[in-house]
Amino acid sequence: MNTLFDKIWDKHVVQQVEDGPTQLYIDRLYCHEVTSPQAFDGMRARGLKCFRPQQIFCMPDHNTPTHDQDKPIEDPVSRKQVDTLAKNAAEFGLTHYGMMSKDNGIIHVVGPEKGLSLPGMTIVCGDSHTSTHGAMGAVAFGIGTSEVEMVMASQCILQQKPKSMRITINGVLGKGVTPKDVALYLMAQITTSGATGYFIEYAGSTVKAMSMEGRLTLCNLSIEMGARGGFIAPDSTTFNYLKGREYAPKGEAWDKAVAYWKTLKSGDDAVFDKELSFNAADIEPRVTYGTNPGMGIGITESLPPAPSKGRESYEKAMNYMQFEAGQKLLGTKVDYVFLGACTNGRIEDFRAFAHLVKGRHKSPDVVAWLVPGSWAVDKQIREEGLDKVLEAAGFEIRQPGCSACLAMNDDKVPAGKLAVSTSNRNFEGRQGPGSRTILASPLTAAAAAITGVITDPRELI
Length: 461
Description:
Layout: H1 4-11, E1 13-16, E2 22-25, E3 28-31, H2 37-45, E4 56-58, H3 76-91, E5 95-96, H4 107-113, E6 122-125, E7 139-142, H5 145-154, E8 156-159, E9 163-170, H6 179-190, E10 198-203, H7 205-208, H8 212-220, E11 229-231, H9 236-242, H10 251-261, E12 274-279, E13 286-288, E14 296-298, H11 311-321, E15 336-339, H12 341-344, H13 347-357, E16 367-370, H14 375-383, H15 386-392, E17 418-421, E18 436-439, H16 442-451
EC number: 4.2.1.33
InterPro entries: 3-IsopropMal_deHydase_lsu, Acnase/IPM_dHydase_lsu_aba_1/3, Acoase/IPM_deHydtase_lsu_aba, Aconitase_4Fe-4S_BS, Aconitase_4Fe-4S_dom, IPM_dehydratase_rel_enz, IPMI_cat
Catalytic activity: (2R,3S)-3-isopropylmalate = (2S)-2-isopropylmalate
């Protein structure tokens, strides 16, 4: 019996090149402003139109400021990229969700919430965190700019088929442990290259119990384990989330779609190239301490000694982060806290953050950026009154965008400052030149924002 990955992949094969790649049909292409301009220029140079324009959706997110979005963007590079995407989308007849449009936000947040990302689809974008959409039961992965052009021109892509891996996690997550902690734990266990060449299927009772938002977070971080992508078989959680969404099927088409989606699972006798199993009880709230997402510990643990293999890069990371082996991170002073990104910018993340800070007050020593992943999330925050809770605790909500996940807009962490961030990468300078990043869950970020130091969120729950 085939794996679910095989089922979706095989259904989308147009042709197999002998001793070469597969020509794979793509159901949905997402474009943002950073990786699309050269693709549009290439199309123009060849005098081509987009083959299936209705399958392509564009929106700016990386360069968008998270304040005063109704005014012209001050940074000339950002302004040019955002304006160029709008012009290109208009010229090629593509759907474009521009800044200040109610449909705008981070592309990997908007796709699922509009029902554009559906089970059984193949989905690509010129962005590594496209793996997020795998939470819907889709085969979703990031591609390069030349491949973006390939999809625009033909709605197909040439790809080598990855190997399959199943990661099974069973058991109930402990108090204060979130899907973000699960992902950070997996990265530390298998390293940031442990899934290279594989597509991961997440399974087990822990994964099944996760909300849609939690699954999106887990799949988002697959790429940080080196995987080509990660996904979860669709089930009632998926169907309940999608029902009634703008682009989801309606009426009879819905019933037919669900009947098909229910077949999207790996068989009992499916054979994977690699199988790994983990126990939810072994996971506590996590924090990173180095300069890749795999350098992480349980929040109560001490920093490990230098490994015999890779000592030089370990010491370089410690030096950059101003930490040393054997120290605990609990009680370390924090300068910035960032809630947001395509990893943790959804409504559930804001609920968790608000729940922990309710009745408390932000530390005066912390600069906090709370950035919804989309205008739809922003709307829900206000409808649920979370904005009032956050305001009372001394926080303000910014406008949607990728924000401080990466230093491509105004939200840059200054050199030397330490940020606790719910984003996906802690590379050197990722959040601003010289900035230092600790990746954590929304609960751990909230605890740090209140106390001004790294704090075990379980103490405040």
